[in-house]
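Write out this protein's structure.
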Amino acid sequence: MSLAAASSPLQPLTLAQAMAAYLDVVRLARSHNTARTYAQALRAFQESLRQRDIDPDTTPLVALDEAWLTHFARDLKDLAPATEQLYLTATRGFYAFVAANWRPELNMERIKFMLRQHSRRPGPRLPQFPYQAIEQVLTYAQSLKQVAEREEDPRARLRLLRDRAFLLTLADTGLRVHEACGLRRGDIDWESARALVVGKGNRQDVVRFSPRALDALQDYLRARALLDGSSGRPLAALPVFARHDKRAGKRVLPISTVTGRDIVRQRVQEALGPEAAGTITPHSFRHYFVTRVLKGSGGNLKLAQVLARHRNIQVTQRYAHLSDDELDRAYAAIFRAGGDAPADEGRG
């Protein structure tokens, strides 16, 4: 429902109609995954209201009460703290939307304070990803070049080279999957091995490319030269990672994030076997990137923060526990296989 339709004087605005208008705005401004999560949050909020005999489909927006958010926070205690925070953030956004458009008297500062008092803060979680398995996948990705040289089908050859370049780019740049899928040829400065991308929060950031990622990209784009040249479009405007299926034909179309995830899923299974399905996602390569930077820099958190484009260094700090080789060596020295604990110590 559009905002104009929702605010029509011909029909009283209900809670459900206002929520629909809010979700329309979210879908335009946020990612698909965020919009889906916000929709789930508002469905949960509506269920919380129904449990208190408040029907969102018939209750007018004028009845919206700040205290309902407090009740909702209590209803979310069975969920994980992180999910609770997501749902409350989405619902608080709905209140802010209502305040901006219809109910300016709603006190958003008081609402924020109430939520801080009644919600749990999620504790820090260490990133979980199979570092060694990712290295196996990257070794396999490199081998796709030799497979492509033997491939007779032009489309299949391009897919092999594209997927090799895509996996190495994810691993060595720290790009998020939607950022990688959105890259255009003109975004990359091949001389400086950098690219300008629009990242999280609509910020423009610089990412850097490793020699192996650049080599893989150049191998792929050279093989694609005839297709790109016949597109009738400037090379700089063409996507870095293109579709190579029958429906795309001779058009140079960017891959979607769904295709990006499918590339990872397919090549992971080829490299590690069907039992590895779902154990490595595109975001796993970002975890790998941050950990590798920390390992290679001797634990330089500031460097890793900048290269990963984390706004908060506390996000980067979660990876420090996974990359402290000195701690690993010290632990191994103390608890080496077959070693005996010092006698008569620690007893009591």
